[in-house]
Amino acid sequence: MDKPVPRSVACAAPQADPLKPPRHIAPLTQGSISVAIIRLSFPIIISNILQTAYQVVDTFWVGRLSAQAVAAVSFCFPISFLLIALGGGLPIAGTVLLAQYTGRGDQEATNHVAAQTLLMVFLVSLVLAAIGYTLAVPTMRLMGAAPDVLPDAVRFFQIAVLGFIFVFAFFAYQALMRGRGIVYPPMVIVFITVLINFALDPLLIFGWGPFPKMGVAGSALATLCTQALAAAIGLTLMVRGRHGIHLRLRDLPPDFDLMRRIFRIGFPSSIEQSTQALGMTVMTMLVAGFGTVSVAAYGIGVRVMSCALVPAIGLSVATSALVGQNIGAGQLPRAERTNTISCSLAFITLSMAGVLAYFGAPSIARFFIPQGGSVIDESSVFIRSIALTFGFIGLQQVLTGSLRGAGDTVAPMVLAMISLWVLRFPLAYVLSSHTALHVRGIWYAFPVTTVLSAVMAGYLFMWGGWREKRIIDEEFRELVREEAAIEEGSSF
User: Fold this and answer.
1) Which of these, 134, 293, 391, 441, has the minimum number of CB atoms within 10 Å of its CB?
2) How many Å apart are CA 326 and CA 323, to the nearest integer?
3) Torsion over CA: 390, 392, 397, 398 (sign)
4) pLDDT for 454
5) Which residues does the chain have with pLDDT short of 70?
6) Given this model, what pLDDT does residue 477 score?
7) 484 in any annotated domain
8) 4 within some domain
9) Which of 338, 337, 269 is nearest to 96 (CA)?
10) 144 — alpha (psi -120 to 50), left (phi > 0) or beta?
């Protein structure tokens, strides 16, 4: 049974039924699981496709400059992804906590956790932006950028890291909304900003009309402007109390006890995501030894793989929200059925997409590099080597999403570290450096480790201790509610 709520909290809490979600929040603890997964995942998938479109659009327009320009962006992408992952994993704690508090119907705790999550993510983004901007030149040199690529790579990277403040703010907004089961507003915001980005890119890259010709740097500046707009819209909606979260000034003073608990939940996800990003970084450094053509081919292949990850991540996030809310409501069997159905959907749909990518590999590569040449051939080999394992990418993502929804963020972190450091990088190094495959040994390491990672994720879900995981036990729940009540009582 729940402990009695302190009088101060009871007085501050709203009088509405605490277990009844707001009218605009569709319940995820009842009804058809398949319908709920599709209803949640589809807008998330569209949002992620649109997020990926930032990189795709940048590569599309930059590809009209030269292969060296594409290589410059390719050098920046993995290290930017690494820095974003270091802080971008923290909002996942907001998704998990808000999902479970929504399942319990605790609105006061929801608002307080949302505000503290945003505050923590903002502080982290400031630190990472400062570090990235200061170390741009040595970082690009360490990545292996050739002298003819280095200036563009540095300029692109410096502008990109300044946008981290806005990127992180919008990621936090998305994570909090998803924990509540609200997925359409973020999709609309991203759609609007991607359209603006597509229009701004050629203006700033080529200097059309009154705009200055900035080359590769113009692509980064266009993205920064649209990311700032997305963050501003998201924060405005929360300040106005739209969609189940009300961002209030009284919840913003640092609550260090709560922030430590949120950090402990989100930090493993940051390590997991940064490990994946670091994998892209070390692979780029390994590929760089085989020349600019190989780096450009790798950049195109990674973007194709990121497109395949979009539906997988969408299903994973939807599964996390469903599993979290059902666990919060005490419906463990329904949470397990959610995982089974999501795995089936992910494997079937992504396997079909992989078949299409396999046969369409040359056309996909030519979309990015219309000039043709050896980059097309090498990109096609990479795309075909990974395409038929897209279904296993979906399985891994959904299984780890289920674990996160239950509050187990450590197991996915361990899996990511094993996948990179024990499997992918050693195999890629051996095949490329000690066999006649050369750079194609790196391409072939991807499908092998993808299948093995999916098998390990299945084992962790079947035999892990996630069923006993309780991240919002009564002690934590009382901590959040009491702090929220104190802040409300001290505000004017």
Assistant:
1) 134
2) 5
3) positive
4) 95
5) 1-27, 52, 372, 464-492
6) 54
7) no
8) no
9) 269
10) left
What's the one-letter identity of residue 133? Y
Q: CB–CB of 207/213 below 8 Å?
A: yes
pLDDT digits (tens, 9 = 90+) for 82-139: 787 777 778 888 778 887 777 777 778 788 888 888 988 898 889 989 998 999 999 8
CA–CA–CA angle 299, 350, 177 (5° rounding): 85
Number of domains in the chain: 1
Query: Whole-prediction pTM value?
Result: 0.70
The pair of three-digit structure tokens given for residue 372, joined into one six-digit string: 């043709």
Farthest-apart Cα atoms in the chain, separation: 73
Which residues have C-beta within 8 Å of that of residue 89, sequence separation ≥ 6? 266, 267, 268, 269, 270, 271, 272, 273, 274
* Residue 473 falls inside a structural domain: yes
Domain extent, residue 55, equals: 31-477
pLDDT digits (tens, 9 = 90+) for 124-159: 889 989 998 999 999 888 877 778 888 888 888 999
Q: How far apart are alpha carbons 40 and 36 in whole angstroms?
A: 6
CA atoms within 13 A on the CB side of 284: 31
